[in-house]
Amino acid sequence: MSDDRIVAICADDYGLSYGVSIGILEALDAGRLTAVSALVNGPRWPAMGVELRRRCRNADVGLHFNLTLGRPLGPMPTFTSEGSFPPVTTVVRLALRRKLPLAEIRAEIDRQLDRFETVMGRAPDYVDGHQHVHGLPGVRDALIEALAARGLAGRVWLRDAGDELHRIVLRGAHAPKTLALALAVQGLSSGFRRAALRQGFVTNEGFSGHSVFDPGKDYARAFETYLRAPGRRHLVMCHPGHVDDELRAQDWVTVTREQELAFLLSPRLPDMLEERGLRLARLSEVCPHPSPDGGRMSEATPQ
Fold first, then answer.
1. Which one, 84, 125, 232, 261, has the greatest CB density within 10 A?
2. Residue 63: in which H helix or E strand, if any?
């Protein structure tokens, strides 16, 4: 079956809080997600990871690599001088100045991969980053190197948070703030796909879902724009969940998570996909992979 009209819907932040995790599981059980990105450095991961493993038969599960929320899994004396990860603004600034302690970050990548694998019993289907840190200069090279060292090239796909400029403009022209955010991420992650491909990794082709998390906006209307001009292996990012005190203590994105979850569980989503001739798919089913003889890339056939 051709994969030129497929879309994957990926829920970020699984493991952030109990309410967020339960909301994502509800959308997963309803068949509205084909990817779930897991935060593994917090206290929710071991128990919630076991539940995710039990219920993820129809979705890819990925590591949501984290450098900006909570505490690392091991010592990072330079990067986390006060014990907690710095804010994303600091991480971006250090990355652009080429001042990140990459040896410490590489060690943390391995620790988070190990914690994912201990609970899930296998390597992730893909890897992305909380607040897109995986695409930052330096971080992306450390991540790709760590995955390659584990023999995961050609076995996992990587999230490319950028897209073709004309597609970004088509989706975001109605909302200047959203367009600006998408373009900013595009600039920071420029070159990520090339770096991944050089080492034998594949990525999604087409990405949307950038949001300003404004509870006054109509999320269904925004989601419709995410489906415009899809790439061949299009990935839509979302942040569903239930609000609880645990979430409020960690993140300012609250009310919109429940709005996103309500949309995902509503009949509006399948209707929207049908109107556009799109079908939900796992990207692990449709991403190209190296042929057995190590030759040119070939397309996987969806099951």
1. 261
2. strand 60-65
